[in-house]
Structures are given as structure tokens and as C-alpha cells.
Amino acid sequence: KENRTGILDFQKPLRVFWKTEKPAETLIVTDKEIWQYIVDEELVYKYSADLIKDSRNIIQVITGQALLTKDFDYQLEGLDKNYQKLRLYPKEPNTQMVEVLLWVNPQTGHINTARVLDFYGNINEITFTSYTVNKKFDKSHFQFTVPKGVELEDRTNGNIQRDLFK
């Protein structure tokens, strides 16, 4: 079991800044690319944004971008501590997601907790402790620059290219 704390900022249509403290990691999603920086390994992965455009991706679900009625079968499971429980089953499961359980605030529609079951039986649970709605972000908040001394593994064009930033 691994617990992480951090922040998740997102802006429509789909820009994400997700930073955790222990282990120190940063995930940035833009309309063109995805950056994953693993601080302890001094390694950055760069992926094509196409990886996250599938609405069955957990990022799409927790940021409210997923097409729930199109891509999921779902069941309402009643109230649990003032949150509506909603169980989602992807119509086309993938290795990252075979089932999702959401606890949603019925007044605001905000997700309090998302519990994701993957193909291997792993469970990832994300709980939000506070929200700031309609926060304005500077464009640079969703940009990434590879730090000096860190290796970049670029996986955007199907071939893995490694570079060390000096």
C-alpha cells in the first residue's frame, strides 16, 4: 500500500497539473503532450497527448471530461456519508480500468473519492480534500521544462529516445 498527498489542478478542455510529495512526482498534461517527472529516479517521460484522450482514462473521469453515458455502464448505489455512490463499468475495459467507484457530492457534482480497479486487481483511490472552483491559472502552470541533470525518455513517436539534460 502506498499513500500519496499532493495537488491536482485542471483546466478545461484537458490540462492537468498533478504533483505528489512522497514519492515526488509531477504529471502535466497539455493538448500536445504528457510529461511525467519522477524526481527520485531523475527521469522524465514524455508521451503523446493521444494516450489520455480516451474517455475511459481515469484522468478523464476525475476531471469530468469522460462521456459516462456513452463509454460506461453504471449503477447508482445510494448515499454513503452524504455522497452518492456511482459504480462505473467501461463498455470496453482496458488494463488501467475495469471498474470505478465514485463518491459524488449530489449538490455540486464534485467527486470526493474515486476508487479504480485495474486489470491486475490493483486499486488506486483518489480522495479530494478541498476544491477551488473556477481558479484562473497562468498558461505556464501547465508547461514543463526538463531540469538539468535529468534524463528524458521521449516516447511520443513510437521510438524511445533518451537524452540527458545538462
How would you explain this protein's 3D organization?
Helices cover 5% and strands 43% of the residues. It is built from 2 helices and 12 strands. It has helices spanning 58-62, 68-71, and strands at residues 6-11, 15-20, 25-29, 33-38, 43-48, 72-80, 83-90, 99-104, 111-117, 123-127, 151-154, 161-164. Strands 1-2-3-4-5-11-12 form a 7-stranded mixed β-sheet, with no helix packed on it. Strands 6-7-8-9-10 form a 5-stranded antiparallel β-sheet. The longest helix is centred in the middle third of the chain and has 5 residues, at 58-62. It is globular and about 50 Å long. The mean pLDDT is 86.
Q: Concise description?
A:
The chain is mainly beta and 166 residues long. It contains two helices and twelve strands; from the N terminus they run βββββααβββββββ. The termini are far apart.
Written as H for each helix and E for each strand, in order along the chain, the element string is: EEEEEHHEEEEEEE
What is the radius of gyration? 17 Å
Beta-strand residue fraction? 35-45%
> Could you give the distance between the termini?
35 Å
Largest sheet: 7 strands, mixed
- Classification by helices and strands: mainly beta
